[in-house]
Amino acid sequence: MIYLSDKGEMLGEFEESSVPAMLATQKISADAFFWREGMAEWRPVAELKASSRPDAAPGPKPAVSVVAPGPVAVAPADPLRAAAGASKPFVPRRGSVAARAVDQPAADEKAMPMRATKEVLPAPAAGGKSRRWLVWSAAGLLLLAGAGGGAWWWINREPPVIPGTVVLAGTEASPVEVRVFRREDLAGPWRERLTGADTRGAELEKLLADADGQMREKKLLHEESSRVCEVGEEYNMPDVAELRADRDAKEAEATAAAAEYDKLKAEKDSLLSVAGLLENLPPPVNAVVADGQGNFALPPAEGEVVLLATTVAGSGEQKETVAWLETLEVAEDGTAPEAVRFSETNRLDVSAVRSFAGAATP
Length: 362
Hints:
Radius of gyration: 55 Å
Number of domains: 3
Strand content: 15-25%
Strand order of the largest sheet: 2-1-3-4
Structural class: alpha+beta
Order of helices and strands: EEHEEHHHEEHHHEEEEEH
Number of strands: 11
Number of helices: 8
Helix content: 40-55%
Distance between the termini: 112 Å
């Protein structure tokens, strides 16, 4: 006895000898499947037809035993649905091959009653789906590997290097040092220093005014004492020694008043000098020294940074501190300006420091 399935429909249990007649009368198609006990999987009926050819050696005919009809049973899993894990009770439909075989059995295709069973019959192998799943899995792993490699490169990429040039005047007495600061790290101290300098400058203005008045007064007294002393010396007056002493004392007082004025003025001038503003700066993020032609290459930090270039120009009493200031905006993706150029256009002075630090002009 064998089970037949055709076009996704379970037909039931039949005599093996009835298959050629069912194929000849097209009650089942040539693409139908069959299964019998002991088989590992469903096989095409064409193999069954080949094994029952006339030239095959006939074997002994087994005795036919009559099996009493049992209760309605669950049919074997359909070979086309078993791959998806679906099975349902076999219910013959009117007009189907199985229904006709049950309603009007022919002499050579007598339908046999099904036996009750709970076993699940094996399904045809689904090798095509397995191969497709493996292909898609491999493609997904390749995509994940590519994305991981791109992320690793992005994280470990080298920071962009910004080339720069300092326009040299030829009077530089030391190499140009270029330092990188965070904007607020540099603007904050400058703002505090400018505010303190403005406060002290206002005090010095009053002190200078008083010192200037004292200096002028002492100078007039010295000049008057000098004239009196000259007259006494000319006429050999008896108190000429006292006149000379008074003249010298007035001269010392005038000199001391002038020195005090000069001291206050020097302090006021140093409060707002570029050299004074460049003292005691915070540590930079990075720093390089330009070569003899003023060229340098600097990897900046992310975000907004400030480049401060400084050098000393001149010699002797003519030495002065020269500085340049440039603000750079580095995007999150590392995009930065192609080059930096320090020249007269970004030369640093007190007014430029005020503008950068956001300090009010007094």
